[in-house]
Amino acid sequence: MTDTNLIQLERSAQHLTRRFKRLEDLMDEAWLEHELIRGDLRNMFTAYYCWLGKEGIEHERH
């Protein structure tokens, strides 16, 4: 009975280790996507403010 419990504990621990690694990978991927989105938004606002300036439209930049 003890051997069965130890095997079950070991399997559960391995499963948790894999799941935490997967979670870490997903968090890294989400962080990368977040940074890429921030860059895209910066580029979009830069182009937008440039366009407003060329059109002679007054704007307040934050």
Task: Compile the SSE list and pairings.
Elements: H1 2-55
Short description:
This protein is an all-alpha fold.
Describe this structure in words.
The protein contains one helix and no strands. It has one helix spanning 2-55. The radius of gyration is 25 Å and the shape is rod-shaped. The relative contact order is 0.06. The mean pLDDT is 93.
Estimated helix fraction: over 70%
Extract low-pLDDT stretches. none
Major sheet size, sense and barrel closure? none
Helices, by number, come to 1
Radius of gyration: 25 Å
| Structural class designation | mainly alpha
Task: Tell me, briefly, the overall form.
Answer: rod-shaped
**Whole-number average pLDDT?**
93
List the secondary-structure elements in sequence, H or E. H
Q: Beta-strand percentage?
A: under 5%
Extended strand count: 0
N/C terminus separation: 67 Å
